[in-house]
Amino acid sequence: MSTRPLFSFFGGVHPPMHKDVSTGQPIDVMPLAERYILPLHQNIGQPAKPVVSVGERVLKGQRIGHAEGYVSVALHAPTSGTIADIGAYPVPHPSGLSDNCIVMTADGADEWTECVALPDYENINPSHLRNIVREAGIVGLGGAGFPSFIKLNPGTHKKIDTLIMNGIECEPYITCDDMLMRERAAEIVAGIRIIRHALQANRVLIAIEDNKPQAIKSIEEAIRGESAMEVVACPTRYPQGSEKQLVEALTGKEIPSEALPLHVGIVVHNVGTAAAVYRAIMLGEPLTSRIITVTGGGVAQPRNVEARIGTVIEDILAHCGGPTAETRKLIMGGPMMGFALHSDRAPVVKTTNCLLAATAEEIPDRGPALPCIRCGACSDACPARLLPQQLFWYAQAKDLDKIQEYNLFDCIECGCCAYVCPSNIPLVHYYRFAKTEIWAREREKEKAELARQRFDFRQTRLEREKAERAARHKKKRDELHSEEPSAAPATETKKAAILAAMERAKKKKDAPRITPANTEALTPQQQQMIEEVEQRRRQSRPNPEQQSAASNGDK
Amino acid sequence: MLTAILALGALALVFGLLLGFAAVRFKVEGDPLVEKIDALLPQTQCGQCGFPGCRPYATAIAKGEADINQCPPGGQTTIVALADLLGRDPKPLNPENGQEKVEKTVAIIREDICIGCTLCIQACPVDAILGAPKQMHTVIEKECTGCELCVAPCPVECIDMIPVKEDIGSWKWKAPPAPATRPRAESDA
Ligand code: SF4
Ligand code: SF4
Ligand code: SF4
Fold it and tell me: Which chain B residues are within 8 Å of A457, Cβ to Cβ?
């Protein structure tokens, strides 16, 4: 049954959607390419570590990168072939820089490695289930790329009340989840069952915006007969698909800064992730491909393709009849949250949901930025309830402390503020700038701290060495005049040397001048005894250094 | 009226005493000013300020023996931060101490030329060079502060300062161009 949500989220905008550009054709499976480039870092957290070497033959689905660290997932070969290179290649990133990649050449056989299916997942230990999802390389396919296995863990004490399946897809142009829900609803629902089992969630809400009637219909058909699973058709508004906003829209619960939906008993997964989980568990297939929307006026046949991870963007565009002469800008992701690509030689990765080849009309030049007129439109639109104009002000002034007081890190970079700003201020660009500046400052601080420690360490080392040298020289000098004391009885000398050593050790131990507590408030008798002992000690050992030197010299 | 004045006066007295007591009772050990100044210095330990490291310079500033504009690696940012901390006016970097360094660098030893003389090890203020007598030496890049102190002592000139390479992890978004300072009233008119 499809219901309207009873709640809503704060702020948001209604940009033109342009969804029908790419929904005219069914999902098209890309033919096998000759070469695939697989960046090792495709998820939030640590990159995978290569476990293959150049020249090695690998099979489709074989693990080529090992999950290194906790927040990390494995990486797999998208087809069979040989590893051509491991090194720096262009990756899809706003910087346009290169990063470590595994490059492989396909052999055309497309031969699978052995896949172990686990249709009996209900009897499997949840932690084992999570590990399979991790080893299958699954990350959130909605765009953020957070390792999914972590979100399959309900934690030690939390009871998961609601599992929200995110089929919102609120960003203009993107339709990959829509097409997946239309065409592969059964896979999605099978995946939802597995996720629900892993989390032991009470109920499942499948949230889909009401501009996708076909997707709603096909998912509703697929969940017929399921208990406590419900499709919720949400009124279309951007950025409803963002995790915290979606929770707010469906449950009315506002998630505090720095908290997770998990803290209020909710977990959100993307519908594409569910399909990937289904494949991993029921078929034993790791994540080696995904659905990507190829759209915009810059391609002749916009549509959704199922492309293998690592396919070079150039190949995908060519497959869809692009880029055409009108293409002005190539964007990965949507027009609101995506970023411009520097090169189409980079590959698609697990988080690539859309390639937008935009024409000049689609990405109009908004003209130069004008001063902020403090109209407040941005704060009305901000779904994170921030004060974008203040953030802008402090970012511009590079006041990195102040901007954090205004919760810069709660900004989800949705772009609503910049979308409504009458002064055309590229607000999100300022926030991205401020965020990377803050991270750089943190790194700098760490480095300075390390340098400070090493400098102090060296200082103490130099002093110690100097003292040791001085002591050595003194010893040598003293040895020359040390005939006399060595004449003393040997046992006597030895005892004195031991005493002296103990004394030194004690001194070292008490270095920060801590006086022993038992030397206070002594009776006169005790004091006298101590003095006598001291006296004897002084007599027996006029110069401890000399004595020890002499005794060493004896041996 | 009188009671109110008395009551407030009494309150003021109580809190004054409390604060005074707290100030004595919870006094921080050591010299916090030197710590605070040191925390603002870049820790390059290059000695360009005229002191053998950042901490000695911090001590000198705290004692009033050195000015705040002597640290070239820190540049204007550090000077402003120091001025803020000490309640003084910022001033330009003293050219006698050197030029502000915009680009971060690290030392690299051309290992085929190195003769293993250990002179660079002795010069490095943070022990970032690894090697033993007559063995090839190498720089631990992560720990090098880019102070350049090892370059001059090398008898075979095999140490170069190279710019730190930007990678995806250290890449930063550039600041957008500043918005026009005033609405274009003239051109509109
Ligand atoms: S400040 Fe951040 S979260 Fe708020 S509208 Fe702007 S981009 Fe979105
Ligand atoms: S919308 Fe633009 S002009 Fe209005 S207050 Fe925000 S930043 Fe300023
Ligand atoms: S000039 Fe060099 S040694 Fe002096 S404070 Fe600056 S970084 Fe430290």
Answer: 127
